[in-house]
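Dear colleague,

Following up on yesterday's call, I've attached the two folding results inline so they're easy to grep. Please treat them as preliminary; we haven't cross-checked anything against experimental data yet. The first protein's sequence and structure tokens come first.
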Amino acid sequence: MALSTHLLLNIKAPPVPSLLKSHRSSSSILPRNFLIPSPCHRKPIKEIMMKPQAASVQSAVSEVMSLIQSSPPTWQSAILSNLLIFLLGSPILVSGLSVSGIAAAFLLGTLTWRAFGSSGFLLVATYFVIGTAVTKVRMAQKEAEGVAEKRKGRRGPGSVIGSSAAGCICAFLAIFGAGGIGYSRLWQLGFVASFCTKLSDTVSSEIGKAYGKTTYLVTTLKVVPRGTEGAVSVEGTFAGLLAAILLAFVGGLMGEITAPEAIICVIASQIANFGESIIGAALQDKEGFRWLNNDAVNVINISMGSILAVFMQQVLLQNLRM
């Protein structure tokens, strides 16, 4: 009896496996490279779903940038580039253009980008910013004297077309390769010269109306009130010359024209502006020439500047060859 009791007391109960040991033993049957995800490492479903979306957005942005940087420019890249720039620059555009003027400017910008790329567009943008800025100079004074531009200087489609007609023609000639590769530089020169001419005209007129001390009628040298058609002032003429030099410099910096061509653009712009002043003094607002409004005179002015620049460049080349 004592022996049996002693044996019963020495028998040990089998160990009860703990949850941890059970887990380890059960995991031993899994492959070695199988990892049981910890709750803290589990990614939310939303994060997993956002990865493909982010990749698609990045891909779309990459495609857009490739399209914008197309060389040579295409109509698609021109439209897309203008759309982005016009959206970003809308506050500036609204300050200088009416709604219909913005629409006309969009067509001009698209055509310019297609013909001459981003460098040509930057040239036109520079013209627009400077031209808008000088139009706003002493606006209250100009309004009081009755010589300010309408709509607080916000120009409409007629003004946009009148200021860019010659440039648009040069752009179309460049796009369709008129005259072959040899003439492409000529159309580029004519394009730059047209905007140098128009910016010089705008600056000389607006600065002359704002600061001109004495204004002379160009045909008779008679002293006339500021803002008179065909009138010039020393202050306005000098400012217009500086504006032409500045825009020609931008054109050269962007690779649109060479240094000699920049000089040609400045000279052509001043000759054209003098001719425009004669037309304004002799014909504008005269009987039989009521149709000759500011927009029509602008077309004549910039066309003269563009044609003169092309002609001067050809004459210069002929002399150099001789």
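Below is the second protein, in the same order (sequence, then structure):
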Amino acid sequence: MDFENKYQQAPEPKYECLLFDLDDTLYPFSSGLSALITKNIQEYMLHKLHMEESKVPELCLSLYKDYGTTMAGLKALGYNFDYDDCHGFVHGTLPYDILKPDPVLRHLLQSLPIRKCIFTNADKAHAARALARLGLEDCFDGIVCFETLNPTDKSTASPDEKDSNLTCLQTRSVSRDEASLFGACSIDVDAGVMLPKTPVVCKPFEEAFEQAFKILNINPQRTVFFDDSVRNLQTGKQLGLHTVLVGTAHRTKGVDYALESIHNIREALPELWEADKNSECVKYSGEVAIETSVEA
């Protein structure tokens, strides 16, 4: 037997990439930053889009649930505004200092022998500020953010583009009160309805995931996806991702693992730290080598 044939490379590791959401995933919801973001979004709807104050809170939440972001929903309803202006208003005055450096998470990320990327619906400026405050700005190999999936030349849609976007997004039932919020759309109360499609590409929709996979060169079957949104995780699961819900220890449909905190990665997924050992491991084809492999 030739020397080369006595050794063979170990099977490839199960995971080759870790894909992380940012907000309420890399830092906890309890930080209060997300609540301030929601407050600023509602202020933008009220003062910039001149919406009726009594309807703003419910519409803000409803659009978030239907479209993944309130901004995406507002665009679907036909509101014309500049993306950068909206992001600047919502994130520009945030007190990022409420986010504290997280040396524990930094150590965990740096110790992981797997490529790590971020997939967020937020804009690049917000992502950069949040990561810098957490002390994680150099822990990731790639970031897909709002601008990645939504080029700035699409920030305002032409009338023709708006018409083409009024197609079916999904079918569901709505109450009479909720129907009144969608005044720009044809909605039958308490019946299956066709909501208008948004021009914004974002989670939880499959197009956003597929573009992220392509941009980051990700094989979903060998990628673990961390997010605080069950809906995002369910889409990811349908597309082949291994999924981890962050923020609660209670699993649900479409979720493979559930973590109370992102700090619990090692306890829940210790196999992630075996990737480098497996990739470097060389198995000897003889009897002694097999015994050594088992002992290891």
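For the second protein, one point worth flagging: The beta strands are 7-9, 17-20, 115-119, 142-144, 171-172, 193-194, 223-227, 242-246, 257-259, 282-284.

Best wishes,
A.L.
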